């Protein structure tokens, strides 16, 4: 049943093509995503519409199924990789057209902590969701976070720790931000295996994120709130 | 059947492994961020003490201080050229402690994950992983480890690479994965899948099982999953002493010695042969576990309800085995070209 079932992307109408892109993201098909992005561009879609309606919407489905234990890390990484292929085409066009930005995050493991696999997953999924990510790597003292956040004009500071001995350092970073009067300039998200919501609240983070999918959803909702505030103000 | 662990398993119906390495070393002054493996060369007295704490608390098996002793992890400390040395020293110190114990004690050469993600998304390949694990295994062998002990793995590819490294080094080995994501490993492996994977290896491990993860209840559910898969192989249970809790600037694991003793007996009754702790498990926990294993008679295999009643609830409703296997999946719109 090979040929009968083959889908020719260019023969699908817009609505079907977007739904097909959601499926192809889900299956991590990078070549097909790139082809579809180019087809929509040829049909006159704005880069921003392609990003939000096709790619980000598709990755939301992936993120939800990851959160619900239907997909696991390997599938999510493949999906993020396909998304990245589409983003590579869109990125210069988004800049050219002055499209609104999803947001920018600086992320790293805290001082003393060298365990970076969780941080890497969050970075990949945030990129997959259309965010710009500045990866500070491992073992970051407070000044790394704050210098990078200032330099990059970041919206979000993300901190990760795997050890019970290093997670208290997150509070050091947040307290320093308070001392400098810049705490409310940034959304602070924290994560890592030994953390929990109670800990996130206790140290004054905006949110604890249980996994990479939750990090993306949380980042999106905080950014949306921030935009609303700006609009209202 | 010539390795010391297999011989010991023939004489006993359960063995106790050790507890936490990191938690104990931090108590001795290790700074977080430093590689514990460097202490095999710089603070050998502390490492001997770490091993002795486990042996004195009644452990029949202890793991060497070499968890992060592969080139990829040591590179973070610019010590990637010292893989053989640090692993050899970690095992040598262990050999001395074990030989002084006055009873058979197994030195298990700890091998943790590389921390890298496999291609195509990451950079790790099978050949690279085998090379790194093999280098580490040769160091552990040279230092006199009785068996290799592969632990906290989440990717099946990495588990297979470690098995091949053990074969290349000519060492018997044990292997455990960390089931921390709704009963599966981070990479989606279920307990039933690991039980099946183990039997497909050309050089299967002496024993296999689960370590770390979420709490003792979840770990017990994983053990029941191995048993349900019908394995004939000895099962390893090495669970954390509860869950880390934050109190006024300090963090401690909430599992009491009494809870860990309860867990040890339940793990044995569920079908585990090698029982130990992981993060947060201190000598006081091990002593309580040993005493309970020696004094309390075997009971029937516990049900999930009994486990949650005695150890606490589970972190997720399902663990991906049995009726839930394969997941619900997503309804596809059309067929994709392959």
Automatic annotation (TrEMBL), chain A:
CDD domains: corrinoid_protein_B12-BD (cd02070). Residues 8-102 form the B12-binding N-terminal domain. Residues 102-233 form the B12-binding domain. Pfam families: B12-binding, B12-binding_2. GO terms for biological process: homocysteine metabolic process; tetrahydrofolate metabolic process. GO terms for molecular function: cobalamin binding; metal ion binding; methionine synthase activity. The keyword Metal-binding applies. The keyword Metal-binding applies. Keywords: Cobalt, Metal-binding. It comes from the Bacteria. GO terms for cellular component: cytosol. Belongs to the methylamine corrinoid protein family. PANTHER family: METHIONINE SYNTHASE. This is Cobalamin-binding protein. It comes from Phaeovulum veldkampii DSM 11550. The lineage of its organism: Bacteria, Pseudomonadati, Pseudomonadota, Alphaproteobacteria, Rhodobacterales.
From TrEMBL, chain B:
Residues 293-338 are annotated as: Disordered. Keywords: Cobalt, Metal-binding, Methyltransferase, S-adenosyl-L-methionine, Transferase, Zinc. InterPro entries: HCY_dom, HCY_dom_sf, Met_Synthase/Corrinoid. One of its GO terms (biological process) is homocysteine metabolic process. Zn(2+) binds at residues 212, 278-279. GO terms for molecular function: metal ion binding; methionine synthase activity. Residues 293-308 have a biased composition (Basic and acidic residues). The keyword Transcription does not apply. Belongs to the vitamin-B12 dependent methionine synthase family. This is Methionine synthase I. It comes from Phaeovulum veldkampii DSM 11550. The lineage of its organism: Bacteria, Pseudomonadati, Pseudomonadota, Alphaproteobacteria, Rhodobacterales.
């Amino acid at each position: 049943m090979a040929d009968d079932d083959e889908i020719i992307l260019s023969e699908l109408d817009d609505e079907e093509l977007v739904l097909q892109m959601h499926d192809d993201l889900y299956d991590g098909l990078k070549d097909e995503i790139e082809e579809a992005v180019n087809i929509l561009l040829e049909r006159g879609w704005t880069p921003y519409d392609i990003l939000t309606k096709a790619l980000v919407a598709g990755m939301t489905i992936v993120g939800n199924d990851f959160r619900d234990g239907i997909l696991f890390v390997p599938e999510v990484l493949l999906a993020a990789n396909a998304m990245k292929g589409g983003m590579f085409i869109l990125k210069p066009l988004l800049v050219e057209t002055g499209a609104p930005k999803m947001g920018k995050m600086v992320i790293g493991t805290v001082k003393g902590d060298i365990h970076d696999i969780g941080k890497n997953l969050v970075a990949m999924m945030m990129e997959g969701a259309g965010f710009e990510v500045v990866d500070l790597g491992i073992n970051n003292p407070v000044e790394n976070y704050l210098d990078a956040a200032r330099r990059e004009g970041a919206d979000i500071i993300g901190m990760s720790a795997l050890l019970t001995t290093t997670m208290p350092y997150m509070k050091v970073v947040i307290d320093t931000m308070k001392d400098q009067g810049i705490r409310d300039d940034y959304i602070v998200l924290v994560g890592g295996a030994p953390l929990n919501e109670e800990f996130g609240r206790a140290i004054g983070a905006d949110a604890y994120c249980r996994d990479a999918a939750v990090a993306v959803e949380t980042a999106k909702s905080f950014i949306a709130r921030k935009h609303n505030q700006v609009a209202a103000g | 059947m010539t390795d010391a662990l297999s011989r010991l398993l023939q004489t006993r119906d359960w063995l106790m492994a050790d507890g936490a390495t990191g938690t104990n070393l931090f108590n001795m002054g290790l700074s977080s961020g430093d590689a514990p493996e460097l202490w095999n060369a710089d603070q050998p007295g502390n490492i001997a003490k770490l091993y002795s704490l486990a042996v004195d608390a009644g452990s029949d098996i202890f793991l060497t201080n070499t968890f992060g002793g592969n080139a990829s992890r040591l590179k973070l400390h610019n010590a990637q050229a010292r893989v053989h040395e640090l692993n050899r020293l970690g095992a040598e110190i262990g050999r001395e402690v074990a030989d002084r114990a006055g009873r058979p004690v197994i030195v298990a050469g700890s091998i943790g994950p590389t921390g890298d993600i496999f291609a195509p998304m990451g950079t790790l390949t099978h050949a690279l992983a085998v090379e790194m694990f093999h280098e580490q295994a040769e160091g552990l062998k040279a230092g006199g480890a009785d068996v290799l002990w592969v632990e906290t793995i989440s990717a099946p590819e990495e588990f297979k690479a470690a098995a091949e490294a053990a074969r290349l080094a000519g060492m018997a080995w044990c292997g455990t994965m960390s089931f921390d994501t709704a009963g599966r490993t981070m990479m989606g492996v279920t307990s039933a899948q690991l039980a099946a994977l183990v039997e497909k290896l050309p050089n299967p491990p002496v024993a296999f099982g689960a370590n770390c993860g979420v709490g003792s209840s979840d770990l017990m559910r994983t053990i029941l999953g191995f048993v349900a898969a019908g394995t004939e192989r000895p099962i390893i249970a090495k669970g954390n002493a509860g869950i880390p809790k934050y109190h006024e600037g300090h963090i401690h694991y909430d599992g009491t010695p009494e809870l860990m003793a309860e867990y040890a007996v339940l793990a044995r009754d569920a079908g585990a042969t090698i029982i130990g702790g992981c993060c947060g498990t201190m000598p006081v926990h091990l002593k309580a576990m040993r005493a309970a294993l020696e004094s309390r008679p075997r009971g029937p295999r516990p049900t999930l309800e009994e486990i949650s009643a005695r150890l606490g609830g589970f972190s997720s409703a399902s663990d991906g085995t049995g009726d839930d296997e394969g997941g619900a999946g997503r309804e596809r719109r059309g067929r994709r070209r392959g």
